[in-house]
């Protein structure tokens, strides 16, 4: 089972720092940067990047722009998770919803005890209409379930040795979780795993996931933070999309990666091997742009 990738270097001002990923249409992905920019990425090579705009309704303070996860809500809108302010904003459906101001702010009182760089990192939309918010923590990381109105319904703990950075729910209630940790020294590389929690993970007070793959064994060891999944046309599994956050550093890159995950690979008695696939060559270096990029207005 090959994992394929392409380096994105469009030479567009304010490009970089991609931390959240979701499907927008049959042909297009939408990504969000940790400085509050949204953009579109074509699924087909050469994976053109377009439409870069500021996320609607952002305040000017930097700590309120620390956007880390993007997920389509069950009602068709968008959930945007903020780490610095530990909140989830609900935007109206469609691309225009992301570029317009949010309609509601969810969970602000419930997450007020989360602070710093180990705060809210991922949000997933469960098939029964609830949401899951995950903190970027190890040990017993905070996992908060909330109802469709954005009210806390229950607190769980996600037991893990590597912090989660994104998560997506499958139609049967199972959960795919992306975990990663830096590997020192410089230049920075990252150990990254795709993990799976079987349906019923939310029945107890603590849940765990089972590692499926070490992604950095088949892909460039970049800072993958965005995860999206869509069903394959033949119903045999899912296309998994990943995007890396370059932290606006020249030592890191923005990589779009994908693999087809067979449904059978989720069975505990099945071991699937992840192998390197084709890597698109890096295009000619664009004209240098200033870093860090200016904040959205």
What class do helices, strands and sheet pairing give?
A: mainly beta
Number of domains: 1
Which strand order do you get reading across the main beta sheet? 19-20-21-1-22
Uncertain stretches: 282-297
User: Would you list the SSEs in sequence order as H and E?
Assistant: EEEEEEEEHEEEEEEEEEEEEEE
CATH topology: Tachylectin-2, Chain A
What percentage of the residues does DSSP assign to strands (E)?
Answer: over 45%
Query: What separation lies between the terminal Cα atoms?
Result: 43 Å
What share of residues is helical?
Answer: under 10%
Main sheet characteristics: 5 strands, mixed
CATH hierarchy, class: Mainly Beta
Average pLDDT rating: 89
In one word, what is the shape? globular
Q: Enumerate how many helices there are, as a single number.
A: 1
In the CATH hierarchy, what is the architecture at level 2? 5 Propeller
Q: How would you describe this structure to a colleague?
A:
This protein has 297 residues and is an all-beta fold. It has one domain (2-280): Tachylectin-2, Chain A. It is 2% helix and 47% strand. The chain is built from 1 helix and 22 strands. It has one helix spanning 94-99; strands at residues 2-8, 18-23, 28-33, 37-42, 49-54, 67-72, 78-82, 87-91, 104-106, 120-125, 131-135, 139-146, 152-160, 164-169, 175-183, 189-197, 206-207, 210-214, 224-231, 237-244, 254-262, 275-280. The strands form 5 sheets. The protein has a 5-stranded mixed sheet with strand order 19-20-21-1-22, with no helix packed on it. A hairpin with a 3-residue loop joins strand 3 (28-33) and strand 4. 42% of the residues are buried. The model is unreliable at 282-297 (pLDDT under 50).
